[in-house]
Structures are given as structure tokens and as C-alpha cells.
Amino acid sequence: MNPEPHALVRAVDELFVRGKPPQWDTLLERLLRHFDCVVGTVHLLRADDGMLHLAAQRGLPPPLLDKVNVIPIGKGMAGIAAQRKEPVQVCNLQTDTSGVARPNAKTTKMEGSLAAPMLLRGELRGELRGVLGVAKPVAYDFTAAETQLLMDVGARVASLLA
């Protein structure tokens, strides 16, 4: 028997009703509140160009918006999460030297950051639909449970977009 999905995963169903536009801003607000984050993004993969396109954001500085509006697969945290089809996190964007975060990421003034791909499960397992990103203004390592929850939310969104 499968355990009951987390309330955050169940809430996605309320926000994605067939025939109505997806409520990306509301989804992002719920994610930020749950993970106690102040910056967040939703990027969707577009089939026509194979790039991640910004669908919603909270807290990004205006100069950064042009740089994250369209992200190639493999560039920056969202692009790498999409390429690897696995979550990518940085404890402190301000001091990171791994190369995962782009230099412009420092302009967010964020530290703890997590990008999770939205992947289909089931028959189309692993097919990418986009990337969810959240960030905190303090150094932070997201737990395995937190990371899995963001992946579960992403999987639910992916299934509703399919």
C-alpha cells in the first residue's frame, strides 16, 4: 500500500484543473512558504526549442530576469538539474566554487538553493517537463526528505502537464 501523498503534493491537484490555466504563481507561493524560502522559480521545458522557459518567479532581482528567462539545458542549477534529471543543490551560492551555479546567481543574495527537475513517472518515466527552484538567504543543506518532497511535487506537476 502506498503512503498518503504529502499535503503539498495533493495541493498541486487543486492548482492544475483541466481546462484552466495552471496557477504557477500560487504553486510557487506554496512551495516558498513550505520550504521557508524567499526566492523561487518555475521553468518549463518547451519542445519547440528544447530550452527551459520561466513560467513564474518570486524574489529574483530585475537584472537577473533576462538571464533566467530562457535557460539552456546544462547551464546553471536549473539547466544542470534538467540535464542530469536529478536534484542539484548548493549550500551557499555566495561562496560556491563547484561551477554548478552561474556567477550571476550571486546577485540573488541567496545562499541555500535547490533545483529539482519535474520528471514523469510511470510509462513515460524520466521524461522532463521542467524544473522547480527554491532558495534561502542563509547557508542551508536541504534534507533528503525535503529534496524528495520537491521531486514529488515536480512529478505531480509533470503528470498533470502530460
Architecture blueprint of SSEs:
Layout: H1 7-15, H2 24-35, E1 39-45, E2 52-58, H3 62-68, E3 70-71, H4 76-84, E4 88-90, E5 113-119, E6 128-135, H5 144-161
Helix pairs in contact: 1-2, 1-5
Question: Structural class of the secondary elements?
Answer: alpha+beta
Give the total of domains: 1
User: Which stretches are poorly predicted, pLDDT < 50 over at least 5 residues?
Assistant: none
From the alpha carbons, calculate the radius of gyration and give it in angstroms.
Answer: 15 Å
How many DSSP-defined strands?
6
What is the H-and-E element order?
Answer: HHEEHEHEEEH
Structural features, described:
It is a single chain. This protein is of the alpha+beta class. The protein has a single domain, classed as Beta-Lactamase (2-Layer Sandwich). The chain contains 5 helices and 6 strands, in the order ααββαβαβββα. The protein has helices at 7-15, 24-35, 62-68, 76-84, 144-161, and strands at residues 39-45, 52-58, 70-71, 88-90, 113-119, 128-135. It has a 6-stranded antiparallel β-sheet with strand order 3-2-1-6-5-4, with helices on both faces. Strand 5 (113-119) and strand 6 form a beta hairpin. The radius of gyration is 15 Å and the shape is globular. The model has no long low-confidence stretch (mean pLDDT 89).
